[in-house]
Amino acid sequence: MPRIEIDAQRCKGCGFCVKFCPKNLIHLNSDFNNKGYHPAVFTGEEKCTGCAICALVCPDIAITVYK
To answer: Residues 29-33: what's their mean pLDDT?
Structure first.
């Protein structure tokens, strides 16, 4: 089953992964990371197809996709 991991400390909360996820499985967290940003959070692991679009659009290279 595909899944993704988001490094919350690298994420600056730009929202690109949220916008481009075809299944809407990524959201911005309401909590802050150490840098003061709202990091992205992955939800709905059972629905992820492993397309890796989120990792491709992430400018901070904070997303790893496992298939």
So the answer is: 96
Mean pLDDT of 8-23: 97
pLDDT over 70, % of the chain = 100
Q: How far is CA 17 from CA 21, 26, 41, 53, in A?
A: 6, 7, 10, 8
Select 3-66's CATH number: 1.10.150.120, 3.30.160.390, 3.30.70.20, 3.40.640.10.
3.30.70.20
* Residues 27, 48: Cα–Cα separation, whole Å: 14
CA 13 to CA 38: how far, in whole Å? 5
